[in-house]
Amino acid sequence: VQLQAFGGGLVQAGDSLRLSCTASGGTFSNYQMGWFRQAPGKEREFVAAFSRSGGSAFYVDSVKGRFTIFRENAKNTVDLQMNSLKPEDTAVYYCAARHKDTTSWLYWGQGTKVTVSS
Fold it and tell me: Is the Cβ–Cβ distance between 105 and 96 less than 8 Å?
């Protein structure tokens, strides 16, 4: 599976931004999709993902109520709508995929940079 993420940019605190990730090379519905981020000088962290069944989504506490993950199987896309952005959301954001039968996130997009100014 190949993933391509885009939509990052420079925004001000309080603004919104929507990231998109397009998948190719596999049967999209067989994969669990998620978003991760890596801030400067920090380790990559989980942000949001759908459950293996795709029926529910879960988020890291710091983005709950502000970020929403969307998935459209017909278009092989997974989006991350980010509202009320904060400077601490500044990071490179990566979309990721793993087959529903596995536990490791094996497939990664190239990352898209989000910078939130105060």
Answer: yes
What is the spatial distance between Cα 118 and Cα 115, in angstroms, rounded to a whole number? Answer: 10
Q: Encoding tokens for residue 108?
A: 């990664």
Residue 64 DSSP one-character state:
T
CA distance 71 to 77: 6
Classify residue 103 by burial, with Cβ atoms within 10 Å: 0-12, 13-18, 19+: exposed
Q: Residue 89: helix, strand or coil by DSSP? A: helix
Radius of gyration of the chain from Cα atoms? 13
Residue with tokens 């497939």: 107
Residue 72 amino acid letter: E
Q: Kindly state the tokens that stand for 27.
A: 């049967």
pLDDT in tens, 45-80: 999 999 888 889 999 999 999 999 999 989 999 999
Q: What is the pLDDT of residues 10-21, one digit of tens each?
A: 999 999 999 999
